[in-house]
Amino acid sequence: MVKLINWREIITELELRAHYHNALPPVCGAYCGDMMSDVLARARRGSLWITIQRHRNVIAVASLVGLSGVVISGGRVPPPDTVALAEKEGVPLFSTPLDSFHAAGRLYYLLTRAGLINQGE
To answer: Which helix (H) or strand (E) holds 12?
Structure first.
């Protein structure tokens, strides 16, 4: 049985504002970081990426890795060209007023409660 986390819970708990979310793929993990090369090397397909970056390259990296979505933290809002690329690539794009630390903590709690990660990982 595949374990999934409910997007409504994620949206509520992380106080997400949707910029593009036509399709919401399953979320099976998370990645928090701002260096594109690190995300390319370490993020896993199906993860939700939390970052302060808001430029178009975020969407390109998310699409290449197969991430389930991008959350821009700290109240930052993506520019129109980033939103347009998210729509073109089909990458769910959100922003949150939470800083990356608190957004990641809340997502960690949700993922742990759903049984997608073990405490202490």
So the answer is: helix 7-13
